[in-house]
Amino acid sequence: MAVLFAALAMTTAAYAAKVVEEIEIEGMVSPASPKALSAALEEQLKVKVVGYDFYGTDNGWPIVKVEFESGAASRDQIEQVINTTKDPTGTPFKVHKDSKPIHLALLEEESKADSVFAADAPDIAPISNPIAASAESNARGGTLYVKYCSKCHGLTGNGAGPSAHGFSTNPRQLWAWHSADASADPYLFWMITNGRTDMPPWGVLLSENERWDLVNYIKTLAPPKK
Q1: Does domain 108-218 have CATH number 1.10.760.10?
Q2: In sequence order, what are the residues at sequence separation of 6 or more whose Cβ sits closer than 8 angstroms to the Cβ of residue 186?
Q3: In this structure, are residues 215 and 145 in contact, taking their beta carbons and an 8 Å threshold?
Q4: What is the rounded CA–CA span in Å between residue 169 and residue 188?
Q5: pLDDT at 101
Q6: In the chain, at which residue ranges do the beta strands (DSSP E only) sit?
């Protein structure tokens, strides 16, 4: 009898294998989003949130990776919890179902943006960036970018952040400024400071040095590899 129970236990264990699901999600709009979603999933379903991928996804949407025992939970249950949970800001999470990539093709004027601007470009003073480009400046700028800019411009600079989905046109893709020379700095600084159309004037919130750090960081954003 003991041998039979042992065999049954081994069989049950074999069927209760670990399953890992990767699910694309919308609604990751604040630094508190991952913690809130993880808490909901782990408390309601007793699953383990292995982590999040914000940068390496194929189509630009964040991914949550969840591990659980087969039979203890299902993907449908996980998706139901995601769709009924809200970020601390009140923004609902949602499982992203559309497989269409959100990396948009660069507009012609964007590909030449470091030297050619639109006809209605503002009159910008030829000022110099006082903050030298460095790992330290890029790190500071990256932190600011994630907090203030990525909601609309996307974490990768693809112009399709989660808060921009209701816009009539996507925010500018920031890849256009990748490795731009110093001549682009005054324009970027002016735009960050003053904003335009749907973009707010960040000069009322960020210091001059913070805005220059953002300029340096934006120039590190590269288009996705083809």
Answers
A1: yes
A2: 124, 125, 126, 127
A3: no
A4: 20
A5: 47
A6: 18-26, 48-53, 63-69, 94-95
